């Protein structure tokens, strides 16, 4: 789909949200059925999801996905992942497994230099081929209409850069490095920073948020977190990142109220956040 067409579609979806509070990413009845078939977890976004997880370590990517993909006729949204500098997916394995347990297919690039998102975007290409391959375990089980990019540090910058791909619908940059340009993306974005991060100070992440005034953008600063607070199982970053991805990629109505509306759940959670901001685009979305 041409990028200009994709931009127009995003504008129409956001306009519809403002008008009627519709669930995002549901272009029609078929999409609504597919998303609805992913089990709800209530508001337990930080707890393991309902799926057992399978992991395939390959040359270019590591795939984390539900062992029983498509068992109830569902298709599974995709998260493409970028590692921090010098890291591999195994460093973040528990977080990526967590997302797979919630019903996502995670394509994690096996590169320690993810900044330009080339390998991340290639993960979508692989899943497109396997979704079309009748001999693949992924055949007709991948929801290619709902794709998110996420990553940590250098991979956080890569998550922003990957969102320039018209196939990506939302981004979650976690403590993102500086080599990225938010102006090239047109998707809703959730920036996560750590209050005590000395490697990527919060002021740098806030600058990305400020530069994202053309899309709905939310900034959350985890109280007390350093730069390594998101490795392993994601720590305090895990639940809010999962909620955001479930909302934009699965239409999780419970997650909507965590981010949007005047009484949003995360807005007043001063135990979790040392700073919380929403731009005008995010403020306008209904809760």
List keywords for this structure.
9 helices; signal; 9 strands; 20% strand; nine-stranded mixed sheet; PET_hydrolase/cutinase-like; disordered N terminus; alpha/beta; 287 residues; Rossmann fold
What's the gist of this structure?
The chain has 287 residues and is an alpha/beta fold. Helices cover 32% and strands 20% of the residues.
Please explain how this structure is put together.
With 287 residues, this protein is an alpha/beta fold. The chain has a single domain (3-283), classed as 3-Layer(aba) Sandwich (Rossmann fold). Helix content is 32%, strand content 20%. A 9-stranded mixed β-sheet has the order 1-2-4-3-5-6-7-8-9, with helices on both faces. The longest helix has 18 residues, at 3-20. The radius of gyration is 17 Å and the shape is globular. Mean pLDDT is 90; it is low at 1-13 and 15-34. Residues 62-253 form the PET hydrolase/cutinase-like domain. InterPro entries: AB_hydrolase_fold, PET_hydrolase/cutinase-like. This is Acetylxylan esterase.
Spans of at least 5 consecutive residues whose pLDDT stays below 50 are 1-13, 15-34
Query: Main beta sheet: strand number and arrangement?
Result: 9 strands, mixed
**Strand arrangement across the biggest beta sheet:** 1-2-4-3-5-6-7-8-9
Share of helix, binned: 25-40%
Number of DSSP E strands: 9
The fraction of residues in strands falls at: 15-25%
CATH topology call: Rossmann fold
Please write the CATH class name: Alpha Beta
- Individual helix count: 9
State the secondary-structure class: alpha/beta
Head-to-tail CA distance between termini: 30 Å
- Within CATH, the superfamily carries the name Alpha/Beta hydrolase fold, catalytic domain
Average pLDDT score: 90
Shape: globular
- Gyration radius, in Å: 17 Å
H-E order: HHEEEHEHEHEEHEHHEH
Query: Please, how many domains?
Result: 1
CATH architecture: 3-Layer(aba) Sandwich
Keywords: Signal
InterPro entries: AB_hydrolase_fold, PET_hydrolase/cutinase-like
Protein name: Acetylxylan esterase
Pfam families: PETase
